Amino acid sequence: MSPKELLYIEDALGHEQFLQTQCQQAAQALQNAELKNYVNQLAQQHSQLFQKLYGLV
Q1: Could you report the per-residue pLDDT of 8-49, keeping only the tens digit for each?
Q2: 26 CB-contact burial (10 Å; exposed 0-12 / middle 13-18 / buried 19+)
Q3: What CA–CA distance (Å, rounded) separates 41 from 35?
Q4: Euclidean distance between the first and final Cα of the chain, in Å?
């Protein structure tokens, strides 16, 4: 893998980590159980994407 490709993956990892954190924080602030569950699912999806990207390195 080229150094430029590694930089792209590193950047994507940072984005996924940020999005997961934002979803987790939003879910904690939500009162609506259905919406909270949906946002927690989004956080889990971002976590899974992070793991897949991390596996490429």
Answers
A1: 999 999 999 999 999 999 999 999 999 999 999 999 999 999
A2: middle
A3: 10
A4: 8
Sequence-ordered list of residues with C-beta below 8 angstroms from that of 40, at least 6 positions apart, any chain? 23, 24, 27
As given in the structure block, the two tokens for residue 28 are 């904690």
Model confidence, pTM: 0.89
pLDDT tens by residue, 4-16: 999 999 999 999 9
Cα 27 versus chain centre, distance: 14
**Pseudo-torsion of CA 29, 38, 41, 50, nearest 10°?**
-70
